[in-house]
Amino acid sequence: MAQKIGLLGKKIGMTQVFADDGESVPVTVIQAGPCFVLGKRTQERDGYTALVLGFDEKPLRLAQKRRSEIGWFAKAEVKPQRFVRELRLPASEVDKYQVGQAIGPKDVFADNTPVDVEGISKGKGYQGVIKKHHMKGMKSTHGTHEYFRHGGSIGCRLTPQRVHKGKRMAGQMGDETVTVQNLQLFRMLPEENCLLVRGSVPGSKDGYVVVTVAATRTTYKRRGQGKGRGSLQEPAQGLQEGRRGSRVNTGGKGLPRASSRAANHWIRCHVETRRSSCSARPLPPAGQARRLSRARCLQAG
Predict the structure, then answer these.
(1) Residue ranges per structural domain of the chain
(2) Which long-range contacts link 296-300 to residues 24+ away (Cβ below 8 Å)?
(3) For residue range 106-121, what is the model confidence (pLDDT) as tens digits?
């Protein structure tokens, strides 16, 4: 089990920001903090080491329903919190924090680092096999009656005489804990305690999430970037200059990957170059051409 430090937060929504090179980046805004340390778990007392964090202040009138909860927060000298979670950490990491301490994004994260986001996915209700498991369904042609979106056979009464465990069938969809790994922490706003994470995260607006340092990676790398490219600012290999300064990405294989105008210009120049390199063949006289074609037909016959 990976033990990484993180913060509790709330999903505000999605928007777009522009990178330094002009790229439009879709990001999810997460309010992560301030989080308060409510307690510690030690190996001698609890059998494991962890840090108890709280987020989002709760009104006292709602906390009065549980007297024990009020005493727990009063012991930590913190107001009641709505969202409380434990983060398992090594003992050396737990000792760095004190009970009642406030933690913000700048104390845990840095820009352009990978993070893992855990949240509760949106509930879809009771759904069929086509939407839930992406099954194909039956053909909508002659001979199929009331069986278009069915899941098909689930077993046989002879063999195996039962339904196998894990059989994909209709049921409740969504409303479960989902973790998305290795997302880019695109930018931090320390004054607002907000994180801008590239892409989408599970859950709906105003849903609580847990943002932790990525468990499997230390540096962020975009999918499909390839092994030859290191950072996002490096130019792609095989870039050629097109008309009006447009850049055509040939992908290193002579295939254009850009706008249609630049691609058509690159193809036209490429074809003209090949035509000019080929030597022109002189055409034979009309009579000689007729005799040559007749002789070829006789040879073929």
Answers:
(1) 124-136+148-173, 239-277
(2) none
(3) 999 988 899 999 999 9
